[in-house]
Design goal:
Blueprint lengths: L5 H20 L1 H8 L4 H12 L2 H8 L5 H25 L3 H9 L4 H38 L5 H25 L2 H7 L1
Length: 184
């Protein structure tokens, strides 16, 4: 008897799509929000980042397809990536931004030429974390639905662990924003 590997491919497709979309969508609003203090936005982002949306969607939607899983994954991934990028952008040396403003640079130009190159690794770390979390959520959603056997479950777990290892490696290689500002 052979194992059904479709859950692994579903998890990979969903996790990659959610990670890429979160990486594309989150940095610009994070840059914009990093320079403002709105406690309600922070509270909403933390709440959405804690909701296991893929699992809820699997339980609520009868036809659990990959577009449904991607949409549900984005509910959790975008606020998480937004918070991670926002924290990194807030740690950017204000003198750099002030100097860029003095030369007449717009917000968009400062974002593309200064903030993103300096704090882009935070977005990559967030994408790796989002990938790992989404893989695990898809596995749990499929397990609850009774569509996950042992071999694909093990492969999904190993893939999620690889995503976590990548995030940890990126964290070690790039350092935290506080370390970069103070010592390097």
């Amino acid at each position: 008897m052979t194992a059904d590997w479709s859950p692994l491919w579903l998890g990979l497709r969903v996790a990659l799509m959610v990670s890429v979309l979160a990486l594309v969508v989150a940095p610009w609003p994070a840059w914009w929000l990093a320079r403002r203090n709105w406690p309600a936005v922070t509270l909403l982002a933390r709440f959405l980042a804690s909701v296991p949306a893929v699992i809820i969607a699997a339980l609520a939607v009868p036809a659990f397809t990959w577009p449904v899983a991607v949409a549900a994954g984005l509910v959790r991934a975008v606020p998480y990536a937004l918070a991670a990028c926002r924290t990194a952008f807030q740690s950017l040396n204000p003198g750099y931004v002030k100097a860029a403003r003095m030369t007449g640079a717009s917000d968009l130009r400062i974002f593309w030429t200064l903030a993103l190159p300096l704090d882009g690794p935070a977005a990559l770390r967030a994408a790796a974390d989002v990938f790992a979390e989404t893989m695990l959520e898809v596995a749990v959603a499929l397990w609850i639905g009774g569509r996950l056997s042992a071999p694909p479950a093990g492969a999904i777990l190993l893939t999620a662990l690889a995503g976590n290892a990548l995030a940890l490696w990126l964290r070690r290689e790039t350092g935290t924003p506080v370390e970069r500002q103070g010592g390097r």
